[in-house]
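ARCHIVE CARD
CATEGORY: sequence design from structure
SOURCE FIELD: tokenized fold
FIELD CONTENT:
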């Protein structure tokens, strides 16, 4: 299932529980994001990620290039707790 399909399902389910004014805000920002063209510049499945350096859980700087030398890498993006 594509991300677009997953987001549409999430929207339909959320709309049953979300006040209409909040749903309108969410829809407005979704449309704004789509119009921005940012999706065209996003990595797609199978694309090679550019090298980058981030801090690991111990606070040490690590690069994607160096970690890839040890084997495959899974990137996980965590927005934080609500």
């Amino acid at each position: 299932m594509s991300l677009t399909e997953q987001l549409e399902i999430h929207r339909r389910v959320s709309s049953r529980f979300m006040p209409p004014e909040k749903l309108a805000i969410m829809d407005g920002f979704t449309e704004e994001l789509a119009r921005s063209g940012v999706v065209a510049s996003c990595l797609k499945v199978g694309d090679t990620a550019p090298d980058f350096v981030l801090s690991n859980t111990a606070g040490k700087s690590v690069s994607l290039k160096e970690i890839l030398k040890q084997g495959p890498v899974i990137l996980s993006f965590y927005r934080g707790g609500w």
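CARD ANNOTATION: The chain has three helices and two strands. The mean pLDDT is 86.
SHELF: design records, drawer C
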